Amino acid sequence: AMMEESKLTRFQRRYLMDCVERGGTLPLQCHPTSSKEPVPAFSRPVCQPSRLSAKPHLRPAKACQAGDAYTREKFKPRARRDLEKEKQRLQNILATGKDVVEHKVKQTLVQTKEEEIPEPDRFEELVNEVQERKEFLAEMEALGQGKKYRRIVLTEISQKMREMEIIDKKRSEEIREIMTKDIPGGNKFD
């Protein structure tokens, strides 16, 4: 039907059907009357790139200006310093002759930064990583790619589980040592 719509000659149809039957690729050009390809008036080697035309292809200035290339973003000033802090600082300097507030603020900021950073728990990280991998595998199975990723993801999950078991054993040994120290007589749990 496509051949009829494209108005191919009988020779072109026969040539295309032969290519399909042989299982080869379809030709990029099918010449109308014979199997011989016409020889161009000038032939250049295939390996050389085509030369650029002598006439440059420039866009007119109006076409360039119509685009967004010439529009500038508007300047949006930002506050470089907190004016309220500057006012408070100046008041303190004029009242006491010293810059007291600035030193206190710096010390409190350093102390709060140290307090805010808890040591990450590796066991919790591993639990989160296992959960992420399970979710990834579920997404891939929903997309029909489960077979491709199942073995890799399950291997990673088993490695994470093994690491979690090692951490759990270490924690239980530490707790057992703490408990035996607290019990008089030194009886150990078995």
TrEMBL record:
Q: Which PANTHER family match?
A: UPF0193 PROTEIN EVG1 (PTHR28348:SF1)
Name listed for the protein in its UniProt record: EVG1 protein
Q: Which Pfam families does the UniProt record give?
A: UPF0193
| Signal sequence coordinates | none
